[in-house]
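User: Reviewer 2 asked us to show a designed sequence for the structure in our supplementary figure. I'm pasting the structure tokens here. Could you produce the per-position amino acids so we can include them in the response letter?
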């Protein structure tokens, strides 16, 4: 049963030195408090529903009546939720919201399924949204229903769901992606005080992951791609792939959206993947090999013209089709991210420090020193990029 307590919050006070009266709500392992917007002295505070402040405090009768009224509102709400069988799943925050909205928000909407749908609606990238929708649909299929409560997703349930996915033919890594999506929804609900941390099943359940060899191209394969005589869209596909390589393995979506360079031939951008969480800009100098490609496809307001003609998904699907034709010519399956993996592999082979590789790829800083104290010298990344391109071209590239 949920518990209500009238408390005096002595952590803060107003200009007169008075402390705020609050109603504390506890249910299970969750708790929250409701402000009454009433301030009293510590000496006058009594703290019972019938007598909140001593009669000698100014306006004591009105204060006692107001706080008692609020207390009864929350007590009635708890009784109502308990009668409806919703109290056990309610968090303290959802009880508070229930009273605030006078019942307009059903507490039972704080289900895993409802939270998953809310999470999906906030996804910025279509690919991410599709991933969450797939995870939701597979879980619904396994549970044989579309409304799933958080407390149903226990450790044994997740283990059983994992076996069911395996029987469906999903690989370890494919199953791991599904469970990471589910875990993100749990984390989101806990951060929003919609779920108690004690209901988190991923302390026990381990998401399995199989090591996957990074698919990079050899020096000979990269040179074979460069030497192909291509026309039309096949040449565009090759150029887009090579431009990603020449710009330190920039992701296709970021390459598609790159801003125009400044007068010194530098571009500054933030990876879309982390733009809403850690907007850390990347500073790259355009090398001559990259500039030659850019000149063929220069845009009016962006680095490349493609964004002015297509949406990214249409452009990506079109190039994938023609990249498959190039794959046949070099007898090696190609996809765009291989440019990124190949750049990073060549950099490592040439002895480029890993912190430089990581920065050039746009990875987040991991240490406190990197995050708060060190201003990275982007000349290091651009120098390394020049040496990697020279390595591809067969020029002297001693580090």
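Assistant: Here is a per-position design you can include in the supplement:
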């Amino acid at each position: 049963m949920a518990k209500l307590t009238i408390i005096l919050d002595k952590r803060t006070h107003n200009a007169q030195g008075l402390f705020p009266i609050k109603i504390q709500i506890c249910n299970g392992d969750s708790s929250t408090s409701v402000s009454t917007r009433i301030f009293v002295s510590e000496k006058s505070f009594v703290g019972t529903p019938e007598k909140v402040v001593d009669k000698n405090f100014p306006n004591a009768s009105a204060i006692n009546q107001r706080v008692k009224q609020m207390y009864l509102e929350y007590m009635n709400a708890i009784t109502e939720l308990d009668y409806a069988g919703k109290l056990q799943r309610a968090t303290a925050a959802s009880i508070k919201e229930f009273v605030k909205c006078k019942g307009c928000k059903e507490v039972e909407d704080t289900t895993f399924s409802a939270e998953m749908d809310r999470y999906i609606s906030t996804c910025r990238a279509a690919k991410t949204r599709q991933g969450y929708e797939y995870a939701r649909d597979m879980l619904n299929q396994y549970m044989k229903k579309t409304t799933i409560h958080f407390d149903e997703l226990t450790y044994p349930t997740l283990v059983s769901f994992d076996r069911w996915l395996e029987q469906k033919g999903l690989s370890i890594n494919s199953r791991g992606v599904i469970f990471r999506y589910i875990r993100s929804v749990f984390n989101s609900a806990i951060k929003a005080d919609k779920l108690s941390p004690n209901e988190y099943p991923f302390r026990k359940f381990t998401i399995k992951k199989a090591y996957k060899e990074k698919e990079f191209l050899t020096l000979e394969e990269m040179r074979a791609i460069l030497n192909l005589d291509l026309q039309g869209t096949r040449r565009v596909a090759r150029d887009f792939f090579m431009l990603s390589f020449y710009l330190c393995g920039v992701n296709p979506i970021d390459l598609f959206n790159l801003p125009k360079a400044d007068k010194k031939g530098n571009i500054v951008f933030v990876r879309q993947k982390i733009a809403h969480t850690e907007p850390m800009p990347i500073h790259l100098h355009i090398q001559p090999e990259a500039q030659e490609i850019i000149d063929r496809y220069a845009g009016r307001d962006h680095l490349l013209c493609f964004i002015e003609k297509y949406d990214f998904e249409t452009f990506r699907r079109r190039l994938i089709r023609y990249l498959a034709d190039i794959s046949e010519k070099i007898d090696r399956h190609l996809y765009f991210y291989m440019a990124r993996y190949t750049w990073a592999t060549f950099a490592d082979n040439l002895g480029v420090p890993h912190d430089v590789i990581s920065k050039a790829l746009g990875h987040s800083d991991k240490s406190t020193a990197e995050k708060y104290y060190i201003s990275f010298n982007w000349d290091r990344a651009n120098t390394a990029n020049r040496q990697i391109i020279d390595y591809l071209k067969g020029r002297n590239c001693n580090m």
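For the response letter, you might also mention the following. The two ends are 69 Å apart (CA to CA). Strands lie at 3-8, 19-27, 30-40, 266-269, 282-285.
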